[in-house]
Specification:
Elements lengths: L1 E3 L4 E2 H9 L5 H8 L9 H14 L18
Antiparallel strand pairs: 1-2
Helix pairs in contact: 1-3
Length: 73
């Protein structure tokens, strides 16, 4: 599904970015251009990011090492 319509970023792209090492919204902004136009997508993007971090055993959160996703203010 499209998470960021302005920049055509999908949940699959976010999950792939997490598998490639992304672990924060800033990583997604830099790598995918997410949230750079209107920002409406950021709450949904954070939700997808959190889920992807939990699902991926290669990430700090997925490995149970207490990784966190900072909230966007």
């Amino acid at each position: 599904m499209y998470v960021c319509v302005c920049n055509a970023v999908t949940d699959r792209q976010i999950r792939a970015a997490v598998r490639a090492g992304a672990s924060s919204l800033n990583d997604l902004r830099e790598g995918l251009g997410l949230g750079g136009t209107c920002g409406t997508c950021l709450p949904c993007a954070a939700e997808v990011l959190r889920a992807a971090l939990r699902e991926d055993p290669g990430t700090a959160a997925g490995a149970g090492q207490g990784g966190t996703v900072p909230a966007f203010a």
